[in-house]
Amino acid sequence: MRYINTLQEGETIRNIYLCKGKRSAETRNGKPYDNLLLQDKTGTLDGKVWDPNSGGIADYDEMDFIECYGEVTSYNNNLQLNIKQIRKAQAGEYVPADYMPTTEKSPESMYEGLLGYVSQIGNTYLRQAVEYYFVNDEEFISRFKAHSAAKSVHHGFAGGLLEHTLSVVKFCEYMVGAYPILNKDLLYAAAICHDIGKTVELSAFPENDYTDDGQLLGHIVIGVEMVSDAVRTIPDFPVKLASELKHCIVAHHGELEYGSPKKPALAEALALNFADCTDAKMQTLTEIFKDKNSNDWLGYNRLFESNLRKTSV
Amino acid sequence: MRYINTLQEGETIRNIYLCKGKRSAETRNGKPYDNLLLQDKTGTLDGKVWDPNSGGIADYDEMDFIECYGEVTSYNNNLQLNIKQIRKAQAGEYVPADYMPTTEKSPESMYEGLLGYVSQIGNTYLRQAVEYYFVNDEEFISRFKAHSAAKSVHHGFAGGLLEHTLSVVKFCEYMVGAYPILNKDLLYAAAICHDIGKTVELSAFPENDYTDDGQLLGHIVIGVEMVSDAVRTIPDFPVKLASELKHCIVAHHGELEYGSPKKPALAEALALNFADCTDAKMQTLTEIFKDKNSNDWLGYNRLFESNLRKTSV
Amino acid sequence: MRYINTLQEGETIRNIYLCKGKRSAETRNGKPYDNLLLQDKTGTLDGKVWDPNSGGIADYDEMDFIECYGEVTSYNNNLQLNIKQIRKAQAGEYVPADYMPTTEKSPESMYEGLLGYVSQIGNTYLRQAVEYYFVNDEEFISRFKAHSAAKSVHHGFAGGLLEHTLSVVKFCEYMVGAYPILNKDLLYAAAICHDIGKTVELSAFPENDYTDDGQLLGHIVIGVEMVSDAVRTIPDFPVKLASELKHCIVAHHGELEYGSPKKPALAEALALNFADCTDAKMQTLTEIFKDKNSNDWLGYNRLFESNLRKTSV
Amino acid sequence: MRYINTLQEGETIRNIYLCKGKRSAETRNGKPYDNLLLQDKTGTLDGKVWDPNSGGIADYDEMDFIECYGEVTSYNNNLQLNIKQIRKAQAGEYVPADYMPTTEKSPESMYEGLLGYVSQIGNTYLRQAVEYYFVNDEEFISRFKAHSAAKSVHHGFAGGLLEHTLSVVKFCEYMVGAYPILNKDLLYAAAICHDIGKTVELSAFPENDYTDDGQLLGHIVIGVEMVSDAVRTIPDFPVKLASELKHCIVAHHGELEYGSPKKPALAEALALNFADCTDAKMQTLTEIFKDKNSNDWLGYNRLFESNLRKTSV
Amino acid sequence: MRYINTLQEGETIRNIYLCKGKRSAETRNGKPYDNLLLQDKTGTLDGKVWDPNSGGIADYDEMDFIECYGEVTSYNNNLQLNIKQIRKAQAGEYVPADYMPTTEKSPESMYEGLLGYVSQIGNTYLRQAVEYYFVNDEEFISRFKAHSAAKSVHHGFAGGLLEHTLSVVKFCEYMVGAYPILNKDLLYAAAICHDIGKTVELSAFPENDYTDDGQLLGHIVIGVEMVSDAVRTIPDFPVKLASELKHCIVAHHGELEYGSPKKPALAEALALNFADCTDAKMQTLTEIFKDKNSNDWLGYNRLFESNLRKTSV
Amino acid sequence: MRYINTLQEGETIRNIYLCKGKRSAETRNGKPYDNLLLQDKTGTLDGKVWDPNSGGIADYDEMDFIECYGEVTSYNNNLQLNIKQIRKAQAGEYVPADYMPTTEKSPESMYEGLLGYVSQIGNTYLRQAVEYYFVNDEEFISRFKAHSAAKSVHHGFAGGLLEHTLSVVKFCEYMVGAYPILNKDLLYAAAICHDIGKTVELSAFPENDYTDDGQLLGHIVIGVEMVSDAVRTIPDFPVKLASELKHCIVAHHGELEYGSPKKPALAEALALNFADCTDAKMQTLTEIFKDKNSNDWLGYNRLFESNLRKTSV
């Protein structure tokens, strides 16, 4: 396996990559060619197939794993691959995990961390609701661990949903210590479950795109329904408490225009909203600043509505 | 029964009213008195208890039905009742329906009208989902018929929810005829169910106020959960279709800032949004113009962000 | 006549098209060429003149009807015409109607439909005002029938203004039946006239672009002035009624930020606003969904602020 | 005539005032009394009729001129009049001008000033359009001179419309000198006419309230129609120039949400918008600061969205 | 000293209170009386002086400390004091601290806590800038300890500025641990200094109101100037670092419409914004929920744009 | 020196230009080439280096002054330079002023004009504060004269800051005459100083880009600090007056969302805001209309949110 971030101008390689994008074009002379976007877990690479009708170029589609043979060249200070041969790879020839951006942390130890918080939930109803998914549902657990938290923006990598959730819960742990009005049990339960709807809103890697339900309902409504499914199985779950837990999911985006149909009406809902929003923004900045070595200005960023740069100290 | 809209200045009456409001005050001389808001289905009346500690005034609370004895006087061109005696009435002494603002139409024939539309839903899954509540659930049916559609604003009377729902469905019937892109089955099902969450969001009359679930979740999320409850009981309900039905509920307020967590993404969701919004606004105007005999300007109205008046023709 | 939607890759044709756009460019080798946008009523086609200075290419300009000789090729899955010869066609060689996108309905029968509503206006002043344009002004009638309702977006084809207007009036017919507070005469008159200013705001086909008055005043102010011109000719037209009719034109966009200098203050103005807005949005969706055979997601749509798709049923 | 701003606590007076407001109330003891708002050109005064049913109190209504007899007292540091007798005054007993807030400047010399600018309009079409109203229409001239520019806010006094208009024209004179892209003739004509619609939007003093046309159409649309009336009488008025003049009226509020259906598209329209807005705001401040002797903070002002105070120098 | 929260209906007291408000009024019978707002550190109490011109009532003004003699009565379920005698107290007769709402925590230990964070600032320039105020400026330190963080809303009590600042710094300590992109030195220095401008924006207790500079410049601009004053005294302070520190002050409100002239452009500025906003909101909720014993709904809260209630667990 | 606006198609030139931009590209055949943006004070010119690796092309970077040898050709109706040889020019070979867009007015006489206003400031404190920079600080004066007022948009040329400032002061002179509530001394001082922060916010020509301080603090905060620096040197400067002067700087953008942390609270601050905004917009229009000879529509302009055209008269 030759990872994309190790390639160098001038070398000729033969390697399997995920074909994340494919777009046909034509030169001024009327000669057709194909633009590819190749991906592995270390990044992406533009590919050019200058002779797409040649015998060496077999059939393939977007999202196929393809073996490419060609030369690494440099164009406008970026590397690209001029591809002479393509063949669709078979399952078994490659390890899918090599082709997905993945959390740098250990999913297992993050999951253990999350379970530690689950066990701190003293209220038995709330703890059972959380355990319904995070302890008892093997299929959910394995999906949750491998999921991203976004199509793009922050935490858009395998394990990102787990990493974000754990980070939000830790944030809530701090807040429970700092603000006595917060109920630890409700806040932990809500924080752990706040984005479980994303396991349905986004398809799994390598696709990682909005599902039909994601488009039509969104992870907030989906998440509420999932919490209801759990609550339904727990005898005598207090009605008011179930509504409070669901309210925290409902209101965690904080503003109607951000997709929460209700504004936070409980202290825990407000705290969860702050923790979620802060972690998302800090992680986004972290991803933006990654690999930037200077404190030069990086240009206007639409999400932050500001030019950005790393600090000088 | 002496209805409030039949009272005349100068007469002395003894009659049972609903005590919708009670507020203690004190004259400048330090004499305490009580301000009451009395209600029956024809309107409301201010009541004054100038001697709340006298023997004739028994214990009573807000939302009690109370028998009042006193004189009808006129103050600032409005009638009020100077109350000498109060006694709490017992169940059986009064007919609750006499005390609630109520639709002027027949709930039974409106319900029949709605069932007519239910039977026109050709898609068997959608029709079963609607029948789950509107045909098979007697408790729901009786609650739905008697419910209001709002705490205040439009359709804030018993039967209002039914009246609004039927009106929206008829609107959709027109649109199905006018715009061939609309699927009749989905639109009818969505229109009939769009506000079922209000049976939980608002308590029944005479209270007619937001419930805990109403505050925390709102009728959109509640309505989606109710649709899910129905769908769960219907074998082989197509997943995509269930999501489409739920999406229409989710998006029927049309804008995120109006409490819909998703904007309409399907033609039926958009049509339902227009029908709901238009009926609500036209009914609100109808209630505003009711009993206005001239086309004088009525003053600035915050909801319509305009001064309003009836037309001269 | 070879309509654009019947062309096939590989054939060589000689046919007259409307030259809707012309833009000169240059290859990397410094060779000039021209990009054309050819149009007939079935669609548009990219044209390339690779040798614009050859003898076969006569003088021509944008908005000319030109006879093109060349080969139909395929580029990026779209057809284009590689043009060898061009000559400007003379009036008489072509039928202009063949070159404009046109309503699929019959203008004559739509116009008859509209007249049917005109005759239902009982108020003699209002009916005369409408007849001033729609019955007595032949030049206006022929212009109105052939006009589009927009430069782009919805109803942007010949006959579109008539089609939209009739659709809005029908919508109002439904509302008059549903909401007794509405005055049929005023609402019909206002609906029929609501967009008459567009006959001045937009130039006729094939140009179909904003006029100077369209840019400076807009169709709302123009429409009010046109109504005033009609009213001025009708003896004893009640002043208040004239203002009410003009108000409905003024307020039909519903919001100041959409270009209405006044919010609806009359029930008919509000109803017209809803009918206009709903028809515009439903027609836009109809045009978007046209020729889409699947219920795949179509991508984010800025006007609807949502991803869109056709329904599965 | 005893002007309100000359009254002193303790004196007993008999004088005619305009009854600008009348509201019945009742003491805690059930005794009815009337609150009046009395007005003359120097200000307003609260009046109390403690015994409205006594023989000395004749019939009268809001907007009547009434002779009051009573004692000037002080309440909460404000003077008020305890009224013993009231009688409706007859035309002839009073000079209406004594009862209206009026510009402190000379209407005649302001009008002369305005005519000076009219004569500077070199373009004969534009000058004739302005003269149609400001030179040839005696009824308009006398109405314009006596009108206010607003129901409340700035320039809400007789002559205020003239004062504001002249001030805006002077502002435009400065701008014509400073910015060569501005056409003096168009800008002067537009500035002089920009608020002529207010003579119809607001009724004359003493009422000074929105008319039916004012509510339904607003002074911008009315003003455009008035300009059209003038243009129609002038042979060969260039079409484009007429539209430009009307555009300046249409766009002079600068923003759609402020009631202009078009944003300024010409330099003169933009300049007029700035002149109008600046003069309105500076005059509002002038009225707020009037009679304030200190530079203490005056409290939050909603129009300026700020606390305000006079400057220390 | 009889603290307000210990008074009981029926008792007669003689005690010194701060006269926080004084407003003259008049009974319907024309008898003048005074409404007072009395304050000590435990709360506020309405006072009534029914006979303000009696000999027992000496001269006094708002913000005076006054000895009141009178009877505690109950009105509308609230206690009030019917005052028979008033005399202005002299300095020395009372302890000012008894009359101000005050943090429940120890200012000294909070200050010690803050110093602990100061000492953790490794960067010598940043630490010196903070020490300029928090270690070396005795007058500042004593003012800072006694200041409130707001006129009303959250932390509006003596010591509130210190309490809020320490809480924000602790929040930042958590974030430094959670997000490695944050520079501890810059974030601590910025957090400690972020609201120092409030010592100038608001006057000291008991007045605690906006100063002239507070109105004209606001605590953000004032704070930047104070940081500049400190930086100017420190030799070789890196220019870029000084700007970064000032930027964190400038941007700490996060949005232009909240009064920050720049959006956060550095990670530390963003983190400070989140810490400040979260602490302010959580403390506001804490103050709202204080003394509420049930989880009943508390009514719509404008700041949170939601109805609010305590959680059921 | 061959100025760009004198070049003609077909000629071959050798001349020094400022290399304002440089971007490498590649033809479809894989041949690299460079796109240059050449600038002198009369405009800009595209340059193409088709053979960047040839011996005639020496090393150079953006913002270098380079001698180019090549042929002037025409592409798409615009001239461009096909460059054969490039060599970096040495200081002394060129006059930098020849390469910057520069005010068409005389900086010296504009500066004299500004000094005239300085001398009219009667208040000795305010005049000294202004003189601190505009009379006594030679370095500042020379920088201020040569600075632009913007990176792009209006007055984005050398001398633009002086030209804009003088124009704003003249505007204020008019307003002082028109509105007696304005204090001339404060308004002149504030107007002269309102944009002095731009000398720090933007780097000098030829770079003319945001500095680090410009990004982090902005010219409003920088300007306030500069005023403070001046005030600090003037004995007995009245505190209130200093705050008023600084407030005018702080509030001169008029709205929080435009970067003013405070809305105008003084008449002079409001007047300065209007003068600044009006001059900026009128100058922007002037630059847009420059060299436009017709009154054709120029297309939608985002800043003015409107299509724009010159007037027909």
From TrEMBL, chains A, B, C, D, E, F:
SUPFAM superfamilies: HD-domain/PDEase-like
Protein name, as recorded: HDIG domain protein
PANTHER family tied to this protein: 3'-5' EXORIBONUCLEASE YHAM (PTHR37294:SF1)
Coiled-coil segments on the chain, per record: none
Pfam family, one: HD
SMART domains to which the protein is assigned, alphabetical: HDc
Organism: [Clostridium] hylemonae DSM 15053
Domain HD: 161-281
Gene Ontology BP annotations: rRNA 3'-end processing
Keyword tags: Hydrolase
GO molecular function: hydrolase activity
